[in-house]
Amino acid sequence: MATESGEHPPIPPEGSPCWIEIPARDVEKLKTFYSALFPSWKFTPDIDVDSMTGIKTSQYSFTRPKGFGGGIVQMPEDIPLGEQAMGYGYTVYYFVNSIDETLGRIHELGGATVLEKKAQSENGFFANATDPEGNRFGIYELHPSMKD
Fold this sequence. Notes:
By secondary structure, the chain is an alpha+beta fold. Helices cover about 15% and strands about 30% of the residues. The strands form 2 sheets. Strands 1, 2, 3, 4 and 5 form a 5-stranded mixed beta sheet that branches.
């Protein structure tokens, strides 16, 4: 994905995350959810429509690191919505300043908590949530002693 200036970011080392795809029935609904939940995500103004498949994608990028981002991608109607329990499949964790505040915003925006806040050794805390379409993701907060 090119940056706003049209420059391509540096190529990351092999094995680095390079794209996070979020499946959606309603692309615009999840774009609204994630842009309100994480204001640092920068969405492209238009929703792309693939000329071959007709699939809609709303692309976004993170403020940092530059060049890393993903897209909210329209799922075909015949694919059932799924529930992914913790420990099955991948979970992407997003850094937050406060899990409690973020979980509150998730609920206000139509999402749900699926794993309450838990300690992760002395380093921090994590929780899992779902967006309005049931996609599970994690949030992570540093322990106050690690923020200094």
